[in-house]
Amino acid sequence: MSNVKLGAAFMAALTPLLAHAQEGSGIDEAINTAVAPVSNFITSIIFYSVKIGDVSFPLIVGWLITAAAICTIYFGFIQLRGVKHSIDLVRGCYADPNDAGEVSHFQALTTALSATVGLGNIAGVAVAVSIGGPGATFWMILAGLLGMASKFTECTLGVKFRRENPDGTISGGPMYYLSRGFEGLGKPGLGRVLAAIFAVCCIGGAIGGGNMFQANQAAKQIANVTGGEMSFFADKGWLIGLVLAVVVGMVIIGGLRSIAHVTEKIVPFMAAIYVGAGIVIMISN
């Protein structure tokens, strides 16, 4: 209930902005002007490329594929061998109400998928095919299969090194398994440094890829279906971003349990719409 009240108060605060939204037509441009230099600088570092023949190859792509291939071989192609086991986990075959944790196996799955369905496999696939042609599909399938081993490794480490807090909540993730994992190897200092670096980078990733990009895409689509360039929202992406922020805030302020309860209801519909739309597109073409 407190989250609903917070959302209502936030929307009430937005009322003056809505009344004078036309006066803020230059806000989008101002935000773009301010953020673009920082975004371009970070992009030049993260996606630093080397020339291989006539092609520019981002080093981070090679690093991710190499790590995924190593995990695949080390765990004996777990992404193929563990399919039945993963289905049994989601079905609750191994569920024990006495085990530590805040969410069910299915809620954990939907929470992870909620951040995957969208930027990664919708916008990313569309961009890859438009740039690389149909052949890009093969490489994305291969990278996806290898990436399953990386995800398995990441999730397993997260569970192994997670921490149960005095209030019963669970804290985990790369920040914890980096610091605690390297501590077990006798290098606690290195682990803490890597954990801190990851946490800082995660903030940037959440703000940029996790929020800004998807909010921008949502704003563009809302503008397109409400009149295109003549739409009230055509130059007011910031307004849609604020509304999305308060809606998301009402969910995440409640913590992991709140997020899991929402995602377990929304994600199945997201997946069904995604698969259904893909089938319709293939049939129509």
TrEMBL record:
**GO MF annotation, one:** amino acid:sodium symporter activity
Q: Which GO terms describe its cellular component?
A: plasma membrane
Its subcellular locations are: Cell membrane
Q: Name one Pfam family in it.
A: Na_Ala_symp
Q: Which positions carry the signal peptide feature in this UniProt record? A: 1-21
Work out whether the entry's keyword set contains Translocase: no
Residue ranges crossing the lipid bilayer per the database entry: 57-77, 122-142, 189-207, 238-259, 266-284
Instruction: State the annotated membrane topology for this chain.
Output: Multi-pass membrane protein
**Could you tell me the keywords of this UniProt record?**
Cell membrane, Membrane, Signal, Transmembrane, Transmembrane helix, Transport
Is Cell membrane one of the keywords?
A: yes
Which PANTHER family does the UniProt record give?
A: AGSS FAMILY TRANSPORTER, SODIUM-ALANINE, TRANSCRIPTIONAL REGULATOR, LRP FAMILY
**What family, per the record?**
Belongs to the alanine or glycine:cation symporter (AGCS) (TC 2.A.25) family.
User: What's the protein called, per UniProt?
Assistant: Alanine:cation symporter family protein
Q: Which organism is it from?
A: Denitromonas iodatirespirans
